[in-house]
Write a structure and sequence with these properties.
Shape: rod-shaped
Strand order of the largest sheet: 1-2-4-6-5
Largest sheet: 5 strands, mixed, barrel
Organism: Herbaspirillum chlorophenolicum
Mean pLDDT: 88
Order of helices and strands: HEEEEEEEEEEEEE
Number of helices: 1
Protein name: Phage baseplate assembly protein V
Distance between the termini: 115 Å
Length: about 210
């Protein structure tokens, strides 16, 4: 009879669901019932070998406790289960997404081949590498761009709202190798290339004085 009682006690404890109540790094305590709180148990990570993934469980998250031999002190915690308090954030079956508590979302829709990383206001993103390549037919930046190193453009450049160039360490603002064509006037200081007058002009081989405004 005692063996049967032990079996009846053990079987329900093999697999149980509950909610995370306390977190301490890679261990959690799970509330299995109003009167039963587990000891500190390890939670199951997706990878913990050469590749390590760190995504801790959160307070209130619904989880499964798997206990070898029905011994809750040896249980491992597997998260997470959608619940009324934490429902599924998406419904599309061909979509993979991660939603963060600050509102950030990383989403890939493999039906339409669209990847999006949406960050909240005041956020930042960093890509640090010896070389970064963006291989795209079209790239659009909607805000300001600051380049602290040299800029090399191998294709045609079109500046649609003008440009401002300041001289560098050598004092030269621009060096142009080749012809320059301008459909409008070119002004150096107060001197207009189209409208300036040249004083001191004489016939013959004498050189005129400099242009005057």
């Amino acid at each position: 009879m005692s063996d049967i009682s032990e079996i009846i006690r053990v079987i329900p404890n093999l697999i149980r669901t509950g909610n995370v109540e306390q977190i301490n790094a890679d261990k959690v305590r799970v509330r299995l019932s109003p009167t039963l709180l587990t000891t500190w148990l390890q939670w199951v990570a997706l990878r913990a070998g050469d590749v390590v993934e760190w995504s801790p469980l959160s307070i209130g998250e619904q989880v499964v406790v798997l206990s070898p031999n029905g011994d809750l002190t040896q249980g491992k915690v597997l998260g997470g289960l959608f619940s009324t308090d934490s429902p599924a954030p998406e419904t599309a079956l061909k979509l993979r997404a991660i939603h963060y508590p600050d509102g950030a979302i990383v989403r890939y829709d493999f039906e339409v081949h669209a990847l999006a990383a949406i960050l909240p206001g005041g956020s930042s993103a960093l890509v640090k590498a010896d070389e970064v390549t963006a291989d795209a037919k079209q790239t659009t930046c909607t805000g300001d761009v600051t380049i602290k190193g040299n800029l090399t453009v191998e294709g045609m450049s079109a500046l649609n709202n003008g440009m401002q160039v300041k001289g560098g360490a050598g004092g030269v603002a621009a060096i142009i190798n080749g012809e320059v064509q301008a459909t409008g006037d070119v002004v150096a200081g107060d001197i207009s290339l189209q409208n300036h007058r040249t004083s001191g002009v004489k016939h013959g081989d004498e050189v005129s004085e400099g242009p005057t405004p």
